[in-house]
Please model this.
Amino acid sequence: MKKFLKILLWIVGVLLALVLIITLLAGPIAKGYVNRHGEDLTGRKVHVDHVGVNLFTGHVNIRDLDVYEDDATTVFAGFDTLDVNVRLLKIPFHTLHFGHITLAGLHADVKQNCDRFNFSSLIEHFASDDSTADEDTTPSDWVLKFYNIRISHAQFNYDDLASGKNWHVPDVNLRVPGFELGGSGNTEGGLNIGFARGGRLGVVGNYDSQSNDFDLTVSLAEFALDNLDALLSDFLRYEHLDGNVYAVLKAEGNIDEIMRSSISGRVALSDIAVGDANGQIAGFDSLAVAVNKICLDDNLFDIASVRLSGLNATYEQWQEYSNLDRLLSPLNATPTPQQDTLQAKDTVATSDTATASSKPMQLHVGSFAIENAALTYTDHTLPEPFSFAVTKLGVEASDLTTAGENNARLQATLQGGGKLNVIWKGDISNWKQHQDLILILRGLDMRQFTPWSVAYTAQPVDDGIFGLSSHTMIANSRLVSKNNIDIYKLRVGNRRQDIDPKVKLPLKTALYILRDKDDKIQLELPVNGDVDSPEFNYMKALWKTLGNLVVKVATSPARALGNALGLSDEDLEFFAVEPDQRSLTSEQYHVLSSLATIAQSDSLLTLTFERQMPATADSAALSRLDGQIRNYLIEQGLPQKRFNITVSDTVGQRSGYAIVSEIAIE
Model:
C-alpha cells in the first residue's frame, strides 16, 4: 500500500511538473511559432515581442504585436497589449466565458489607391478556395460570455493616395461591462472617440437580450467640422469649413421594431462658416435645436425649439453659374448650372418620401426664431454689378404645426435704409384652404437698382423712394391680392448710348404721367385668381396688371400728359387754325408749348401734325403756318427728328392739324 501511494505521488508530481513546464514554455513556444510562421498563417510578416500563457488561470498576455505591409518593412497594424482571461472550467459545459478582454494601443494605417486597399492581400489570403461549400446552419449549443471588454487609446489613420485626402482618429476607447451570445442577460457599454482636429464622441448603451429593448445615448462635444474634410470634399468644393458641433441625443426602442424608436435630445452648432476662394458663402453664430421626440415610423417630428442666430449668407450669380453651384461641385469638376439637376433631385426625393411613409407628417415646433440674419445678393451678369443686402433679419413663430393654424412675423432692414415687415397666418399642410399674408415695405431707395434699370432699359434711376403695401389672402383655393405701390420723386436719367437695352419703354413719359401734384406715384394693382387653375400665375398676373397700365400710357401718351398739363382731349387730338391765318395766336403758341413739353418727356415719343384743310385754302398761307409750327417747336428744344408735319389726302370740313403721338416700344 505504501509502495502504491509512493508511485501515485511520483506520477502526480511528474504531471504537475509537466504542466508547470508547459505553462512556462507555452508562451515562448507560441511567440517563436508566430514569429517564424506568421507569414504562412496570414500572408504578411508578423512580429510579437512577448506571449504569456497561464494554463491554470486561463490567462493570456500578448505584447507589442505588429502585422507588416506586403513589403515586410512597414507596419500596417498592431497593438501594444492584449490581455485575455478565459474560465477554463466552463468549457466542458459548452460555455466559453471571457472574464476580461483588454486591448491597449491598437493602431492601423489604412491606405487606399483607387479601388484597392493595403489590406486587400490579407482578405485574398483568407478567402476560401471552395465556393461551393454549404454553410452549416445547425444551431450551436455553445454559449459565449464576454465581460469587462476594454479597448483603450486606439488610433486609426486613413490615406486616399489618389486624392491626397487624410483622415486621422487619434484616440478611440471602448468599454463593455458584459454581453452574452446564445444566453440571456443585459448588455451595456460605452464608446469614446477623440478626433484629430478637436472634439470627442461618446456613446453609452444598454441592450436586453430577452426583450430586445435598447437605449442609446450619443454625446458629441466640441466636434470640429473640419474633421469631415476627407468625407465632404467628394461632394463640396470649399476653401474652409469651420465650426463646432455639440449634441446629446437619446434613442429608445426595440431591435425588432427599429423604425418605431424614439429620439430626443439637443443639438447645437457654433461659429459655423463655409467659404470658397472668393470669400465666405454662409455661416452663423449659433444654431440650437431641442427635440422632444422623433419617431420615423409615425412620421412624427416634435421639436421643442429652433433658434438660429447671426446667419450671414451671400449668393453671387455669374453668366454660367453661381457660388452655390460652385460649392456643390466636386473639386475636380467644372461648376455648371444646377437648376435642372436640383429640380430632378427634388422630384425624386418627393417621390421617395411618399413611398417610404404613407402617414402624413406630424410636425410641431414649439418656438422658432431667426435672429440678426444678413443676406446679400450679387449679380455679375449685368453691365455693372448689382449687389443688395438685407440685414437685421428676424423671424419669430410659435407652435408651428402641419395640422392647424400658424402665425409668424418677419422683419428686416433693407440696404439704403428701407424696412420690411411681413405677417403670416395660414395652414401648412393644406395651404390652399387658408393663407393670410401682409407685406409692408417702406423707404426703399430706388437708386440702388440702377444696374438693373440700366441693363434692361439703358436708363439709370436718379432718385426715388419706393413703398409697397400688400395683402394677399387665399380661401378655398381662391386668391385675392391687393397691392398698393407708393413712390415718391421717382426720376430716371437719359438713355445711355453704350448700352443696348433689353426692352425699350417710355419710362420718362410714364413717370411724368403717373406723378401727381405732390410728386407721388400711387398705384393699385389687384390680383385675383384660382390657384387650382393651371393657367394661374401670381407674378404673371401682377405684371399683366402693371403692363396694362404702361400700355395705356404708351398708346395714348399725349392724351395722358396733356391732361396732366391742363389740355383738353380736343386740344390733344386736333390743332385748329384758320385756312387764311397769317400767324399763330398766343393761345395756339401755348398749346404748341405744352405739346413740346409732352414730346420732350421721353426720347421715344414722337408727334405727327397731319395738316387737314378745305380745298379752298391758300397753299402759301398753309406753308407759312407749317414753318411757324416747325420753328417754334425747335425753339422750345424739341429736335426736328422728334416731330413730323405731313399733308393729308383727306379734304375735310375742319381746318387745322390732326395730332398723332407715338412711342417706339420694343
The two ends are 131 Å apart (CA to CA). Confidence is low (pLDDT under 50) at residues 11-16, 338-357. Residues 74 and 200 are 30 Å apart (CA to CA). The chain is about 25% helix and 45% strand.
